[in-house]
Design a protein that fits this description.
Layout lengths: L16 E2 L8 E7 L12 E9 L5 E4 H4 L3 E4 L7 H7 L7 E6 L20 E11 L1 E2 L8 E7 L12 E10 L2 E11 L10 H7 L7 E6 L21 E11 L9 H20 L3 H15 L7 H24 L3 H14 L4 H13 L3 H14 L4 H46 L3 H14 L4 H5 L5 E2 L5 E2 L2
Antiparallel strand pairs: 1-2, 2-6, 3-4, 3-5, 3-7, 6-7, 8-9, 9-12, 10-11, 10-13, 12-13, 14-15
Helix pairs in contact: 4-5, 4-6, 5-6, 6-7, 6-8, 7-8, 8-9, 9-10
């Protein structure tokens, strides 16, 4: 007998209870088998379940067990009916429960299936097999996994640059190595001893949320570790984070032109402070943040537009300087190009682009920029010195190319010689033939004519001409 032929009507009993957030009875749950542990999956987790779906008359319209494999989906992402996102989120591992979903929490007036009539209340016997924690890592490589212990409030989450107030507990190898309250700006957490994995995760936290984070070494302290906390290199960590409060940074679209200029100046100043401390990555991040507020000219007029343009050029050039020091020459060149689009005669833009091209092995292109700087300022000693460096690099490149070509031609000549040798080996052994003929000549007595004419042209046994 197939699942389609089985009819076991079900009606919610006295143990069924309403689990809808609105308390409107749209989803009733009755536990058939108690689950294990204390945790349930949260939004974003990939869950694995077995289920059997029936109509109110007991007709089975779908069953994962008939297909012989569990059903998987991402919880809370609208991939299943509303009643499932609500009901499955309440289930523990190994739990079996009956979910009764009213039509408006199921498929409504249009089910999309001939097996399910419109406006149907549906029953689902669901077994929670297991779930994977929500992966918050940028590349979805399992490097940052979140398990929500206490759901947060509202819908707002911090953005990059937000001021956040958190309580954190860090565990290594089952032992608490750090516990403290800390306030910092997202994106600058390294200054407060916060690893990038925690910062990345906090962008998904809601107010008052408490979550456990499993953070792989690459998103924690990597090869360096944290000796001050007795965390060895390449260590995976567990953080328990509570987001006590946060002040969201205003997005650029929410600001008028004066507000954008203010934020641009603010982040430029922060970048410069980090640059002076030789914290180049943080400085670069701040300069790029400033650019976000300034790169679009909408709303700026007259003096405001001039100030925006000057500030934007300055931040592009500062980014280029950081990138050159970080040996990211291609991106440094791109930042210079953006500055030069706005101000084609910028000496700093030309000079730094020249430096980037020089490091990229393009001295001829770099020389053009340095010479342009000298045309504008003949007393620029740095540009003059870099022209000399370019000339030297070009000379070295030509010498190297000459050597490469010489080696290449020698290889070709060697191949020709080898080919000639191979061809020679394929020919009959003339020398051997001559040697044998000459040996015969030496074994016979010379004729009278030969005796009388000793200077006649003859070949000896080596094949060489003699008596010429």
């Amino acid at each position: 007998m197939t699942a389609d032929e089985i009819k076991v009507p079900y009606s919610p009993g006295p143990n069924a209870f309403d689990i809808t957030p609105a308390g409107d009875g749209g989803v009733l749950k009755e536990i058939i088998k108690q689950g294990e542990g204390e945790y349930t999956p949260n939004s974003g987790c990939k869950v694995y379940v077995h289920y059997t779906g029936t109509l109110t008359d007991g007709t089975v319209f779908d069953s994962s067990r008939d297909r012989g494999e569990p059903f998987e989906f991402n919880l809370g992402k609208g991939q299943v009916i509303k009643g499932w996102d609500i009901g499955v989120a309440t289930m523990k591992r190994k739990e079996v429960a009956m979910l009764t979903c009213r039509s408006d929490y199921a498929y409504g007036k249009s089910s999309g299936s001939p097996k399910i009539p419109p406006d149907s209340t549906l029953h689902f016997e669901v077994e929670m097999i297991d779930w994977q924690k929500e992966d918050l890592s940028p590349k979805k490589d399992g490097g940052i996994l979140r398990n929500i212990l206490q759901p947060g409030e509202g819908h707002a989450t911090p953005n990059d640059g937000s001021m956040v107030d958190v309580h954190l507990i860090c565990e290594y190898n089952g032992k608490v190595v750090e516990e403290r309250d800390v306030t910092f700006n997202l994106g600058e957490g390294i200054e407060s001893g916060i690893p990038q994995g925690v910062e990345k995760a906090l962008e998904k936290f809601k107010l008052k949320e408490k979550s456990q984070l499993e953070i792989k070494s690459k998103y924690a302290w990597g090869k360096e570790g944290r000796p001050d906390l007795q965390i060895p290199p390449n260590s995976d960590l567990i953080y328990t984070i509570t987001l006590n409060n946060f002040e969201k940074l205003k997005e650029t679209w929410a600001l008028d032109s004066d507000g954008k200029l203010e934020q641009g100046k603010f982040f430029k100043e922060k970048g410069t402070n980090y640059f002076k401390l030789n914290k180049l990555k943080l400085a670069l991040k701040m300069y790029k943040k400033a650019i976000e507020y300034l790169e679009f000219d909408s709303g700026f007029v007259e003096e405001g537009e001039k100030e925006r343009k000057a500030l934007l050029i300055s931040n592009h050039l500062n980014c280029a300087l950081c990138l050159i020091k970080l040996q990211e020459f291609t991106e440094a060149k791109e930042q210079c190009n953006k500055a030069l689009e706005l101000e084609p005669t910028s000496e700093k833009g030309l000079f730094r682009r020249g430096q980037a091209n020089l490091f990229l092995g393009e001295p001829e292109i770099a020389k053009v920029d340095f010479e342009t700087v000298l045309k504008q300022d003949p007393n620029n000693k740095a540009a003059a010195q870099h022209v000399m460096v370019c000339n030297q690099k070009m000379k070295e490149q030509k010498a190297k190319e000459k050597q490469i070509y010489a080696n290449m031609f020698e290889k070709f000549a060697q191949k020709d010689r080898e080919k000639e040798e191979e061809e020679r080996k394929k020919q009959p052994d003339v020398m051997k033939t001559l040697g044998e003929w000459g040996q015969d000549e030496r074994e016979r007595e010379p004729t009278e004519f030969e005796k009388e004419n000793p200077n006649i042209l003859m070949l000896d046994g080596t094949g060489d001409f003699k008596n010429m």
